[in-house]
Amino acid sequence: MENEIRSLLGTALGELFGPEAAAVNLVLEVPRDRSHGDLATNVAMSLARTLKKPPRKIAEELVAHLEGQDTFLESITIAGPGFINFRIGSSIWHHSLADILKKKTAYGRTHAGEDFPVMVEYVSANPTGPLNVVNARAAAFGDTLVRLFDAAGYKVASEFYINDVGRQIDLLGESLLARYEQVQGRGEGQIPEDGYQGEYLIELAQELDAKEIDASLADKSDSEKRDIMSRHAVEKLRAWQEKDLKAYGTQFDRWFYQHELYPQGVEDTFKLLQEKGLVEERDGAQWFRATQFGDDQDRVLIRANGDPTYFLADLAYHTSKESRGIKRSIDIWGPDHHGYIERMQSAMEALGFGRDWLEVLIVQQVNLLSDGKQVKMSKRKGEFITLQDLIEEVGKDAARFFFLQRRAESHLDFDLDLAKKENDENPVFYVKYAHARISGVIRKATEQGVSESQDADLSLLKEAPELALIKVLHRFPAIIASAAAQREPHRLTTYLREVAQAFHLFYHECRVISDNSDLTSARLALCRASQIVVSNGLSLMDISAPERM
């Protein structure tokens, strides 16, 4: 309907004021005061300077022009200095309701993305320990964004990048070797000063097959032993991470190991930059001329000792993405990587992909609150910090919903006590309870011998709460499209709370099962449509939609 109104306005503007006016950016919004109408535009105020007319006068001419046409609009009114409000006829809303009932699980899906190929790379935590709460937030955000892209018609792929090369992996191997020696009772087993002290390495060491490990370590040098234990540590920890993410409802199309880039991918990327004349040698090191592309300094690609930098590996990884047909790489990074964005986008421009080819979204820190106080991130004190612990504490559904309630770039206070409440104060409980209540109404009707009718007369739905609910349900496809386009999954949680609120009002104001069989059928159809939208919305966040609570 929004598109139809834009078309009507565009035609009217062209006929009244010429092509320049018709080309203006038309903004349609739901009025804050819903009594004013269903949609509103400030186009008259936007054109006032261009047309050299008072906005109210422009609005009056537009309304007079539109009122003479036979449209689906029930009324067009002017408010304030020149806002134009549109009220849509009830038959259109009834048609929208029928569309929901027809499409069922497909309702909400659009072709807005036009099969544009995007890759969302997210979490990508180092394989050096269990996933933490910031990883949990990134997982909920990234996974929901992938689902939104798919529903909005993009060709989307998801990937987890495993940083399994470098000094931190060497330290991990040395730390696991020390823990293994301890577990086997062969002395203290000295962990490196800057190694990994976590008790999870004791658990990992206990899981290793001693006979197999001892055989593989026999007659090996210290560096060889370190590398062997590094490989075991990476695979074990990656498996743990994958298991926890799966329990959290998050899966990836591919787990990409950094070591896959060596040597070919790294060498090819370096040569590509060389061929473009963007590499120069300084003090034995190879530098990328990043300042030519807006970076604040040039960057080292290969150190004087011949070792490639992480930066070069990252360029090789993104070159790999582009070679796989990805037209937009959306990377979800933690707050400590903010300063890395300009460096990477400069390099993407240098490689010929364009700065916009790489889009970086930052997921901010999380503060866990219990009894109104911040939970200290200390495993030694027995206070959880891992994704697995969070799932055990509040459940997958609550964790995901709470992480998705705010913009990713905003700091988040996660109230653990609220997440465990089973009342309307808890937003995820409120939405899930709406689904359970709807299911209960439909179930009660069936038990009373009242069946849903495929031919229900939806025109009987005339009460204000009925129409208000239908109007909210109608917005679902637009919510999906905008949440995907703006990379804002929090729009979904806000919307579902609005649906739940509208349904609860309808439920209290309008008796669903009554002696009027035709009205009962129509209201049951509205219940079913509400159930479809809530279920579809929760599914996009991989949150369960219970039949009973």
Automatic annotation (TrEMBL):
* Residue ranges the record marks as coiled coil: none
Keyword annotations for this protein, in alphabetical order, are:
Aminoacyl-tRNA synthetase, ATP-binding, Cytoplasm, Ligase, Nucleotide-binding, Protein biosynthesis
List the GO biological process terms.
Answer: arginyl-tRNA aminoacylation
Against SUPFAM superfamilies, the record matches this protein to: Anticodon-binding domain of a subclass of class I aminoacyl-tRNA synthetases (SSF47323), Arginyl-tRNA synthetase (ArgRS), N-terminal 'additional' domain (SSF55190), Nucleotidylyl transferase (SSF52374)
In the Enzyme Commission scheme, what number(s) does this protein have? 6.1.1.19
Which superkingdom is the protein from? Bacteria
Q: Provide the family line.
A: Belongs to the class-I aminoacyl-tRNA synthetase family.
How is this protein named in the record? Arginine--tRNA ligase
Q: Which organism is it from?
A: Eiseniibacteriota bacterium
